[in-house]
Design brief:
By secondary structure, the chain is mainly α. The protein has helices at residues 23-32, 40-53, 58-71, 77-80, 85-92, 101-121, 124-129, 144-147, 154-165, 173-182, 196-205; strands at residues 6-8, 14-16. This is DNA-3-methyladenine glycosylase I.
Length: 209
């Protein structure tokens, strides 16, 4: 019998059960979620998509991700920072993305904030990874109760406060915890998931910016 939050397939491989909720999740769970990321553009994209996901199912965003990339110039924040009112109206008529004006405006605002942060500190990745939780903050065992619902953590609350202080928007503690999961700052593959140990190995080898 599977443990809560885990599913074993006919080949005997056990994964986080959400992996089987939609075909798009298979690759995302196995090859992206939890893999450490140090590229500034990729990190800006993850922040934006997690912000668009607020109040929605992640599968909706994942299915639209390629179109989001087309609509926002590959999430090159230096280009998005130049967007004006005409771009907002263009995006509001684009059925391939989530047409939420506040989130679109936030994406442009956050691009400008990213430019300022990189100019000031040299790297969005270096700044974000400074919020990685220490060993004392990490759970001894990761189970379904740990990240079910709308999880936050002391580290995600610190990151949220710091970004908001710098003028970023749609970066609440829950959204930032989802970012930390997605960018590999934490490894929340459940104990027993086939991906947990390989991801932890990648984290061990990862050179922090």
């Amino acid at each position: 019998m599977d443990q809560p939050g885990l599913t074993t397939d006919p080949t005997g491989c056990t994964h986080c059960s959400w992996r089987n909720a939609a075909p798009e999740y298979l690759h995302y769970h196995d090859h992206e979620w939890g893999v450490p990321v140090a590229d500034d553009v990729q990190l800006y994209e993850k922040i934006c998509l997690e912000g668009f996901q607020a109040g929605m199912a992640w599968i909706t965003i994942l299915r639209k991700r390629e179109h989001f990339r087309q609509a926002f110039h590959g999430f090159d924040f230096r280009k998005v920072a130049q967007y004006g009112q005409a771009d907002i109206e263009r995006l509001m008529t684009d059925p391939g993305i989530v047409r939420n004006r506040a989130k679109i405006v936030s994406t442009i605002n956050n691009a400008r904030q990213a430019c300022e942060l990189v100019e000031e500190t040299g790297s969005l990745a270096r700044w974000l990874w400074a919020f990685e939780p220490g060993e004392a903050e990490r759970p001894a065992v990761v189970d379904i109760a740990y990240w079910s619902g709308n999880p936050t953590s002391p580290a995600s609350m610190r990151l949220s406060r710091a970004l908001k202080k710098r003028g970023w928007t749609f970066v609440g503690p829950t959204t930032m915890y989802a970012l930390m999961q997605a960018m590999g700052m934490v490894n929340d593959h459940l104990e027993g998931c086939e991906c947990r140990l390989p991801i932890e190995h990648q984290r061990d080898l990862f050179k922090r910016p």
